[in-house]
## 1
Amino acid sequence: KQKYIHRWTTLPRRLCSCLQYILLLIRGCHTTAIFSPQSLSLSAYSSSGLTGFWIEEAIIKKKTEELGAGSLPLVDPGVYNYQEQDLNERLKRLYPAVNEEETPLPRSWSPKDKYSYIGLSQNNLRVHYKGHGKNHKDAASVRATHPIPAACGIYYFEVKIVSKGRDGYMGIGLSAQGVNMNRLPGWDKHSYGYHGDDGHSFCSSGTGHPYGPTFTTGDVIGCCVNLINNTCFYTKNGISLGVAFTDLPPNLYPTVGLQTPGEIVDANFGQQPFVFDIEDYMSEWRAKIHGMIARFPIGDRLGEWQAVLQNMVSSYLVHHGYCATATSFARATQTMIQEDQTSIKNRQRIQKLVLAGRVGEAIEATQQLYPGLLERNPNLLFVLKCRQFVEMVNGTDSEVRCLAIRSPKSQDSYPGSPNLSPRHGASNPHLHTGGTESPTCSNGVTPLKSKNRSSIKYPSASSSASSSTSSSPSSINYSESNSSDSTKSQPRSANSTQETSDSEMEIEAEHYSNGVVDGSSARIMNGTYKHEEILQPDDNSVGNGVLDEECSNGRQLCGGNQAATERMIQFGRELQALNEQLCREYGKNAAHKKMLQDAFSLLAYSDPWNCPVGQQLDPTQRESLCSALNSAILESQNLPKHPPLMLALGQATACVQLMARVRSGSCSFARVDNFLH
Amino acid sequence: MACLLEAPLRISVLSEVTATSRHYVDRLFDPDPQKVLQGVIDMKNAVIGNNKQKANLIVLGAVPRLLYLLQQSSSGLDLRTECAVVLGSLAMGTENNIKSLVDCHIIPALLQGLLSPELIFIEACLRCLRTVFISPVTPVQLLYTDPTVIPHLMSLLSSSQKTQEYITQIFSHCCKTSDHQTVLFNHSAVQHIAPLLISPSYKVRMQALKCFSVLAYENTQVSMTLVNVLVDGEPLSQVFVRMMQRDQPVEMQLTAAKCLTFMCRAGAIQTEESCIVLKTLPCLVRMCSKDHLLEERVDGAETLAYLIEPDVELQRIASTTDHLVAMLADYFKYPSSVSAITDIKRLDHDLKHAHELRQAAFKLYASLGSNDEDIRKKITDTENMMDRIVSGLSESSIKVRLAAVRCLHSLSRSVQQLRTSFHDHAVWKPLMKLLQNAPDDVLIMASSTLCNLLLEFSPSKEPILESGVIELLCSLTQSDSPALRINGIWALMNMAFQADQKVKVEIVGCLGTEQLFRLLSDPDNSVLMKTLGLLRNLLSTRPHIDQIMSSHGKQIMQAVTLILEAEQSIEVKEQTLCILANIADGNTAKDLIMTNDDMLQKIKYYMSHSSVKLQLAATFCISNLIWNEEDGSQERQDKLRELGFVDVLHKLSQASDPNLSDRAKTAMQQYLA
């Protein structure tokens, strides 16, 4: 026992690459740190370079998820969390075309963009007047935090009159940035307002026009900006009052102005359901714009259009390798296919392999069928290998699968359907075969248990009667890591001093975690351990039927096979080496770095499928890689990289995004996905 | 058969009939049924979209033969179905075609065909029936003559989408009266049609919706049932609200809004409910906007007028919604000057709808302005509004004239408008013109408006008087229509209020005491009330009282006695006692009461009546009689004391009602002085 501990503490001194970290993480040391972040200050890691960085990221991700706060810091998350969530959902539903990273939506009044006579409260949603209110010179306004994005198409907010105060000189409307705040909305250029005392509308002028009824305490006034035709109308208690302003300029802010003491108004930017049925109004415009698109004249070129459409469909089918469909489509429409059958079928085969998660085989097949292709595209190769690593974790890549599964037949159990999700099909046989390996346990959870044991509680496992029979898997691991350490440390040591100090930081960190292990070997308090503890009583107390169910849900690293895990670790090292090689040849590549980090991060969690980076394991993630490889092959054959259909789609999407940027509000209702059913 | 008998017509047209048409008919008589079938199919292909061919075939007698084949059970299903299809095609032609078909008794034949077990044949029959019934020339009653037809149609509603579409369409066109509504309702139309509102077929949903709109119109029983109907777990009103969503076809929005409007007017939905205030009303206002077809705008405005007519709150909301008042001004701009220049077709279209638009706008203005003074002001402030009404009053279309006068009537309820815009635009002139030889409904509205124009503060009163209105009004009081009688007498009453002696004499002279008595025994209580009001107004200021009483005193006293002795309401008797009080205020007229002991006893009786109102009026009368400063007051006081009035007055001075005791005390003081 002492010997192993010694190795734990001494080995890291020679470790300097991430891979060693991964190894440790698998063994559950660092998981302690990750699962109890409070015991480790983040700053301790912040200077630890690459490896420290990605752990730190994992921690931050985890932390933020635990908080569930998203990216926006809140003043009082406890009270407004629910409302905030409500608001986000409503805004997303009302303005799906708005990209809030580019153009944030107004969510409250701005504490900075207001006159001093204005007081804000209730999360900057309530406005009250705190001036003298002697005459119009005491008028005061406040703008919302952001202007109305054009991509809203139709924008709406409501203001409830909490109190009309002394005279009820309240104005609700819009103004551009920079308009004098010592005024009511509507009095100045680029300022528009509807006033409660006389019901007049003010369009950049000190004199109003009769517009609607007056409004007072208890009324809810809504203001709707139509960014398609640049008009504005108001509502009173849910009733539309008709157009108030036309030819509005862009980038207007929701604005309210007050003028006499006691006036209080509350804004609703979507925090609450609106009194006016704005979604109904939007639906009318959506129907209008869809009708406009549907009726768009294509003139006399109807015949040409048909040929174009047929070509698009045909090329799309060919591109994705739907060979038989493409052939029959070509026959039916009497069009030509440019590519020959075998080429299509080859591509189809490779794609099927990628989509089934058998990336290693896909790489092999590509190298065989298109020699030189991946050599010319080292980046693609790297991405593929990264994915291969992820698939190894998933237990789907053939390199780990053949280790884990005894019957080779199951390798062919993946039909080529691109949408097939191979994950569950893969994990079930593993569990059962793994189970039979261990003589002591007869249920499917065993592999997980033994794995956990070997990784966490290894010291005690050696004395346990139920430990694995054949050989101690961990010792194999160790010898392997040892050897790799020595090989790895050589090139590393040639690196800069900066890196050396980095590795020293790592060692320190490890010491710490090791100390935890050491100090309380019997009761290690980390997540993985707990996980096992939770599982264990299930093992004993629950009947077989439940256990079967459980094992079908349980997914394990590399399919739970030890040899496969080792192969994965080995592969990870190769991958790391490849990355370094690429860095040397082509310079640093941030995307690659991130990709590698994400892939390795999977190992930091006891259940990689349910962790912040677990998304990678989703079979749908294979699709983009699959199409990238497909495109590369097509390109090498001097065929178009993307099918024209996708180009057209991309063009349309880009056009709609461009419309948002050039402030054409109709983009909101011309979204491409509305037309994809 | 009927259509074959019109020989002269037939011959004249026959000469034009081509040989091919005759060939088609001849083939229907072929002995080989297979050839007949082919003949019918060829005929079907020949008549599609060819009105001339259709007319030819009808003239050549194809219809009776087709009907014969259709009814013959020996004919195969194919043949019978094809016959029904051809007949349906013939019905698609001109109205004359429909008439000929109906004359050939196509409807009973087709209704008989619905009893067939074959769906395809039933559908063909229904399609033809639908085409026939939606024509305005077909008598609706034909659907209801055989009482088994409606239940059978109801049972067919579950057969297919086509039967659903055709049957609901037939119902919605054939439900014209409350009797029809009742027939359909009693055959569970609501339960049968409600599920169709969520049919996957738009046509079925639409026709079902139309059915509900005609069923619910002014029908409380249907409307009350509708609110409790659930369609797929959802209340019907919510289904209608969903159909009013803005992305739905306009026709559907409008019809759903009609359904809710009718349900609301029938009292099944409260006017303040959100489905009315926030959905139906805004939807109808939207229909009035320029974006919609002229027909839709007419329909929208008329429905909205109907919805808001009785409810001032809805009127207020509508008046502020989407600039409705200004939006309606646009209804008067058809045909527009642009359409006249650019496009003959559009001009024609505009002209056809111009009257409809104008009358709809007037109707809606009338509803909007019927209660709220601010809205009336908003309406009269709309561009050229009064001019439009004035010219509307003399338009050729009776519908527009009626709507314009309704609008004017609504606006005439405003004191301010009577004093200003009504006078400025001399609206009385076209109004007076309208009153000559107008149909009753126009006359009712016009005379009602006139009543308001004759109010004493109206500056139009003078010129109207000078235009010889009295004779006209007196003739109205002789009308059979109670509404006209009441308007006539009401106008006279208003006119007599604080009027010159000359006017009063003219009124009495023109009306004649005979007519006056006839009105005093009018079966309509409100006519009686206004007549008494007229008498009261006539008998005001002392010289007028004396003059009128000297000439008509006997009759008037008789009438008063008659009313006081009859079984009449408190209000009527109060008016009558007030008249007596007025008479008692005259100089010479007093004697008519003082010499009538019977009358004095009656007054005494009413002074002790259980109704304070009557006590007050009677006391007022006595008070006038014993008033000090007048000639002969001493004798009257003495006589009344003898009759025991002082005791009565004394008792009344202790009355709990302050008005009454005051009045009695004042009267008592006359004795003390």
## 2
Amino acid sequence: MEFSDLIRTGRAQAKLLRGPEAPPLRGTLCLTGHHLLLSPGPQATSELWLLLLRSVDSIEKRVASDSGTITLRCKDLRVLQLEIEGVEASLDIARSIEALSSLESVITSFPFFYRPKGLRLGDAWHFHPPERYYKRVARETNAWRLSEVNEDFSVCPSYPRAVIVPRSVDDGALARSARFRQGGRFPVLSYHHAPSGTVLVRSSQPLTGPQKRRCAEDEELLRAVLLGARPGARGFIVDTRSSQAAKQARMTGGGTEAKAAYPGWKRLHRPLERGQPLQESFVRLVEACGDLQQSTDSWLRRLEGCCWLAHVKEALSTACLAAQGMEREGACILVHGAEGTDSTLLVTSLAQLILDPLSRTMAGFQELVEREWIQAGHPFQLRCAHSAFSHARSKHEAPTFLLFLDCVWQLGRQFPLSLEFGEGLLLALFEHAYASPFGTFLCNSEKERCLCEVRTRTHSLWSGLNQPKERRKLRNPLYAPNPLAIWPSVELQSLRLWQGLFLRWIRPPEPSEVAWEKVWQIVTDKEKTKLSQPTVSASEPQL
Amino acid sequence: MRYSLWMQATFISEKKYTLLLEGVKVENVRLVDRISSKKAALGTLYLTATHVIFVENAPDTRKETWILHSQISTIEKQATAATGCPLLIRCKNFQLLQLIIPQERDCHDVYISLIRLARPVKYEELYCFSFNPKLDKEEREQGWMLIDLSEEYKRMGLPNNYWQLSDVNRDYRVCDSYPTELYVPKSATAHIIVGSSKFRSRRRFPALSYYYRDNHASICRSSQPLSGFSARCLEDEQMLQAIRKANPGSDFIYVVDTRPKLNAMANRAAGKGYENEDNYSNIKFQFIGIENIHVMRNSLQKMLEVCELKSPSMSDFLWGLENSGWLRHIKAIMDAGIFIAKAVSEEGVSVLVHCSDGWDRTAQVCSVASLLLDPHYRTLKGFMVLIEKDWISFGHKFNHRYGNLDGDPKEISPVIDQFIECVWQLMEQFPCAFEFNERFLIHIQHHIYSCQFGNFLCNSQKERQELKIQERTYSLWAHLWKNRADYMNPLFRDDHSQTRGTLRLPTTPCNFLYKFWSGMYNRFEKGLQPRQSVTDYLMAVKEETQQLEEEREALEERLEKIQKVQLNHTKVKAKQSEPSKHSGFSTSDNSTANTPQDYSGNMKSFPSRSPSQGDEDSALILTQDNLKSSDPDLSANSDQESGVEDLSCRSPSGGECAPSEDSGKDRDSDEAVFLTA
């Protein structure tokens, strides 16, 4: 298939409106296989304007007598308006954008063509392999080993090649435990909390089924988890479904761990919203944010109605519960829901951020996202196929990753000095998860990425983000390493709407930017003064 | 250690009042933590002539909670339970104290005493008449001179060709709730003013509130006209003409009635009402629709009830917040201010503002508009001037609105609280536009109710003069000014195009810009506030930069000397540079970070070791209490809105606390400290 087949009209004259605060742009509109370009013409001073077609979420066209208006709603929640000369041209362009923005094929997507200057293919793809995290764990404890039982992705198609498992359990037992877990996601190490010696483990639901099946190897695996921590250690299974939903899952072959089969483990149910209801919550929130005509009361009513903040609260408090169990109770924690690829990862990654000072650094956070989301098999391609505007609803979309970013933002708001990265990084991750020139968020699992040769044929987002010119945008100038756990407040008054994301294109950006400049100035002033201290090297002469 | 010394000092000054009262003292009282009702601190309750004091028994901390009687809003005695008799004290600064007193009799005594103490009947009973910050007479007088309104009018560029100082209200002859010094249009003769005043409620005739020198437009204020259904007053019409003429650039003025139209029309039946456009030439009349003091009082009440809900869901909270209407009212006030600011700065048209009596909504709206228009009011001193001008001098009824003396509860309403919140909402939208920070606003709110300083006493300038306030009490402004370092906004940029001149508000109506102000309404629930304060951190950084700067200068001087000496001694020895003692700036974080709250809900999932949490919390709050002693009274009330950050270990003076020690500290030992606390 050639892109040119889909491009009905290559160019047209157009005016671009970018929201109430930005001035409109005029020029020649060009459509390529991956981009929409607006070239302001030779005499104009402003630069070329470029939009990745993949980031278009929905498109709406209206025609008048001799022109057409296309409204593009983007996955990063931007709303753009194109006024195009000529009815025919505008309809053609609209259809072309529609076709090009919804291409399914991964290997024809832009990351496979993107070759930015200054970056080398293959760079940064090996920044965060599981092996590297294992090295850290191995320094802290001897109870765990790196297993390559999933070398060819046959045991669990959504796990990476290497996973960290209890040393005392052999690969055969792992494979059998995998058959007892949905999608083969047997319990693996997510995080080792060195100060308490406890661990955070994640998996999918056990396939207990209506017959209440058991699996000796799975039971042994979880026993080994407790023994690895310390003799007599206890564990909690945090099930991210309600106990009723967990029971119901048995009818379809799933279920929960039976109490008698797993001595030492106690089950807690903390229902988290997932899947379609979560997506709807996102859609309704974005709708409410876009409606500028409403009264204050109806705004609050809609904020309440969409429940987004309630989801934030639930996610954060479940993560806190897991973290508290480890740090305060000295217990091991196993987290799973059903598939173990969504709310499970939400809880494990947030719990680490709360407990682990390293994961709050720039590199550590990127490592956390890579390890706990991308390699852990969060199906990004399915979940982030569409954002809040699309009318083409498939049932796989869910803003779980966005919910994670929002929770991180809440942590950052409550502990403004404790995260090395700023809002900029979170916004960038949101954008790139939904549409990106980089390959990092492509596909649904490590297996798929291998098949598509993502690592060798696309650039890694991390190498893009870690370029020196990006640093200032992404870093938190206030950062001071905090060796303690950061326990957020999950009271309602403490949680706020993430305006920087949801109102990013609606509220005027300048005041916060001006403030940010000032923060940087204060901090760099200090650095400069410090550097300019004269070195009193000269020994004081004995007088 | 600073803390204990300081407390001693306070005790000395308190002692004589303690002796005055036949000392109510109740032991074994429990103070219940509001967030998790499981936690309670055992201690002793004291009632003095001025304060309620609760001292915890915990031997290490002896944490003290001080509440001024004037802060007490309501006292509620609840049904006796097995554990004792609960007493709920709600404060005007949004503190909520739940005490459990073992004996019903004691509880009743405390209740009766507090009811009396919280409702003084004479001004002389108020704290400001006994409060003595140990300043001599001269210092006190200087304090009162810090804010000078005649200077302020000069700053605006007055008097000039169009406006003059009028002595028509000398000795409060025309209007007893107005100040004696007022600016009026030059063409308004005494005859016109007096005539107009007779046609206005409480004789509050149109007078200047703010003059915008860039284009001669002005904001004037008054009360409603006594127009009824058809009454007219030539002098009043002339007065409005005079205001229009004082702005030669415009051929009309706006008359803004800040009430909802319905309310204004209802007033006509009582012989009051609003200006008829047919009778006044060249006016454009406009209703704005801010609700009256009773609606506002109920709205705040409802919002506080939402804050008090026990473990509400997110939906309960947002629904309750919406239902209270509070943010809608805040937006209405802001919208009125924005309308006026735009009329003045963009259209160059003068505005006359009134409501009913012209001392509540009018004060709110005029001061919000002034704040938007003039960057001076966004500075620390300018903001004091603004409150002095639009609120204190123009006769906002502080005593009635804030219930300083026992009075009609229907007169009480959070009018200035709303203005203060408007300022905060603006600060959130324009983080660099204000010289002062959130703490400044919170402390002003606190002192409006505390009656510790004389500024906000009484209902008018006249009453204050009769009471000789300036000779008998101290000024809050001087106190705040002295501690201004605590109130600075490190992000303030007076040089930026965005913060100079009129604040540019977004053209589209943005409801989401109005947020619940947790820092005010939940300020005593430390657990709900951000755990680290950006403001304090940046101030500390700035302070350190300055210190480094000074140090460098000193070192350079020394270097010069050394070099001179070295010219003589030619021998040079290389040595390692002296490590800067500030190198440990990025120390570990506050320790509250290490205190989880109750995340398990009612599940009691971790029954084994949780009970220690409560003690940790309170111990931590105490440690913060030690930090900011700049405002003794506030500290005494365990009021630390600055966040939990222990900056003392960062600031150069407290350098003993080495960062390496802290970060290397075993977490368990860390915990142990809390447990013993």
